[in-house]
């Protein structure tokens, strides 16, 4: 019996919601909504009493999976490892297919976000690069080449 009906979204907790939202919007995602969540529902789901979050939901241009960015208003966020490498346990990356990898990497560099490694090519079908985005979020950018 399959339990999953569809893939809905990935959630990332951030400190600077506006800056991280601006990065992903400039990359090509669209803001679907922005709201605050608090009360019994949030406290029950996340297990943090008296919590309050501000959430921005972003969607991809094709209408597929979404990206939820959340900033805890209370309690304060706990810092993660902004320099985490791919072998560190936890969320490894958020991945997007792009039309022009070089242009996307150059744009990111112009915004101050550099490559984690380099641009690699997989079996003549894909070019891919990891960019370390705002707050250390690793963003995988991939372009079909075949």
UniProtKB/TrEMBL annotation:
Any one Gene Ontology molecular-function term assigned to this protein's record: metal ion binding
Domain VOC: 6-144
PROSITE patterns the UniProt entry points to: VOC
Record has Lipid metabolism as a keyword: no
Keywords: Dioxygenase, Metal-binding, Oxidoreductase
CDD domains documented for this protein: VOC_like
GO biological-process terms attached to the record: L-methylmalonyl-CoA metabolic process
Protein's name according to its UniProt entry: Catechol 2,3-dioxygenase
Presence of the UniProt keyword Oxidoreductase in the record: yes
Taxonomic source organism: Actinoplanes regularis
